[in-house]
Amino acid sequence: MLRPMNAPAVSVASARTRLALSAFVLLFVELALIRWLGANIIYLAYFSNFVLVGSFLGIGLGFLWASRSERSLFPWAAVALSAFVAMVRLFDINIEVGGSNLIFFADQRPVGPPRWIMLPIVFAAVALCVAAIADGVARNFRRLAPLDAYRWDLVGSILGVVGFSALAFLGSPPVVWGAIVGSLLLGLAWNHGVSARRWGAASLLLLVAVLGVESFGGSQAWSPYYALSWDEHDEGGIVMRINDVATWDQHPKHEAAMYDFVYDFRTAEEVGEVLIIGAGSGNDVSVALGHGAERVDAVEIDPVILDLARTHHPGQPYADDRVNVHIDDGRAFLERTDRQWDLILLALPDSLTVVLGQGSIRLESYLFTQEAIAAYRDHLAPGGVFGMYNFMREGWLVDRYAATLADAFGEAPCVVDPQANLLTVLAVSEDPAALHCHGDDRWLASADGPEPVSDDRPFPYLRTPHVPRFYLMAIALVLGASVLAVRVAAGPMRGLWRQTDVFFMGLAFLLLETKNVVEFALLFGTTWFVNALVFVSVLVSVLAAVEVSRRVRVRRPEWLYAVLAAALALNWIVPTEWLLTLAPGVRLAVAGGVAFLPIFTANLIFADRFRDEEESTVAFGANILGAVLGGVLEYTALLTGYRSLLFIVAAAYVLALLTGRRYLRPAVGA
Prior knowledge:
Rossmann fold, 2 domains, four-stranded antiparallel sheet
């Protein structure tokens, strides 16, 4: 049975400080769990949205519990977190990723428990850990006026995102994350009594010990995207494991024959200038140099992987003066240059993670859309060749890519291994004389081949538009568990029903944020920096709305809904393809204005509603629970694309307006 620990009495200034610090810890832990669990539960990085949504549920539960119980969960936060981390490290867990209609790039390790079971378990564990931390946030939150509390919660959240992003940039290992979190939790729980201090200190030691095992020692590193480890060959080069999955092996030029197929298809004797997207290991760069390339532009999204490849490759291709290295997303790099190449290669681009903040787009997803293929075509010099190769797993994926190439180039591509038994190679050019492939080397369209994918539905690994069955089963379990957990945390539901309007606001806001994360990933790249910048910008926009609301009271709050409707309509009207044609600086200004106008307006609405709320923790908890449902509804993008999420956003705000009309009273003096 949970025993109450002594709760400290604090001043307003102290409550603000403690609120900001606890909010910092909350956001820091949320981001750290997404990164760390993806590296330690094999293949979970493909499903990080379940960790994110589990965090939202935990925040909601923590606020609801704090609104009705004097038994604080916060002193137990460090205990729950350290126990969870220790359990994950103790057991060798992996997520099942089999199936032919949705492709995952997996190795041959034994299959783990069914994903529709494992994902809800991870979801629940994350929710419990985060709920204990959120309880501490909520207890400081309710000591302040609603907008003052929201303000300092946002300040702490922004610092949490910035702090974790800075550590990711520096390549700090998990033991540093654990030491920061454990120390702050211990400090914040210090006044809860001797028992809280003892448990907090023990938990800090356990976190540091467990995370220290994977943080120290040679042949391992943490990049902004992955946990990396490698083995060295006696003759030079390394075998790289990404999130403990063997991913690539460095070869000397004479052992890299599989990279020669595209060159063999070309008719030109001179290679000319080459662009390689997904340069990573350096093998592709080494082969291009070996074929006499005059210039090689090597694009790699992960700076740590590139540094390791540069150091260990036996041929030292990155040391060649002809090689120009670009740390960037491949699609974003192309959008920022007018340069043309004689040969463009997509070289084994298959990430093992998704873009943070949503559940379906992988780092490389925007490299395979119709719009991306058109961009490759437009960046080829006359007579230039585009090639791509990978272990594609399924013949239908080869057909999808080949059909996309044929549509863009007006010629059927040359193909090696169209059944995707091992390494599949595709090569194409607008100039039929630039390639020689005959008979079985020429791709033939199949009657049941899948459609190409677009920037709005960038899901190349999903055979047809649908929500896979395992997602539906996992989501059903997650929603069922969420309903039960909310009932336990909130007690009688009468008070929660009064917050229906802010629930719908939370649902809509999560989907609006998701659309912006996805759109900015397309406009500026799927890099960790762009992702972190979007999250910080969203929080700063929310904080700005709160600051405006603290100083200005809207006389007719319903007018804000009209402004929001216009802002959402503008988001629908302005096409992403037009934004991509703008210069980078202009694109940032226009896209930022279009994207953040509805976010700012929506939070003016929420802040106005929240200002006089007597049960601020209940209302805030209900708002976050709406985000849980929003995180689930995000998967409808698999069916309809991301722009269509705007319809759900609009519908949710209409429901918020209808269910919250009693709060739309004119301001005094209106």
